[in-house]
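From the thread on structure requests for the teaching lab: each student submitted one protein with a one-line request. Submission from student K.M.:

"Model NADH dehydrogenase [ubiquinone] 1 alpha subcomplex assembly factor 4 from Hippolais icterina, tokens only."
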Amino acid sequence: SDSPEIKEEVLRRDDTFLTLLKDVYVESRDPPVQVKDGGGEHLPSKQEEKRLTKLGHLEALDVKKVSKGKISLVEALTLLNNHKLQPQIWTAEKIAAEYSLELKEVNSLLEFFIPFTVLEFPKETKKAITSHKPKQLT
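Reply posted by the TA:
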């Protein structure tokens, strides 16, 4: 395990090996770099068009620019709420034109996504549950 002969052999300096090591010279060259031609599938074919979002007073909560054909989360909630409150004014056609969307996608959005309605009952109509004594079985 820890024999003194082995320690001495490991720590001993061998001048012949050192002189041979000084004569060693390593030369390294990298192979030439090959450019892979991927056919340009990662490059965009054209610059994506962007539009400014229509957020109003909720501007600080959302992104400032989105791609045409897309909407931000705040815009989606706003247009769904506008359509729910005034469906005769905020029709699918008007929403598609206002937010640069396809009519088919707007119709799907209005059909499948409905914002929640929160109803709060007036305090006078709330009835407290009164405890009653259980019936005794005889």
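TA comment: The CA atoms of residues 81 and 116 lie 9 Å apart. Residues 50-113 form one domain.
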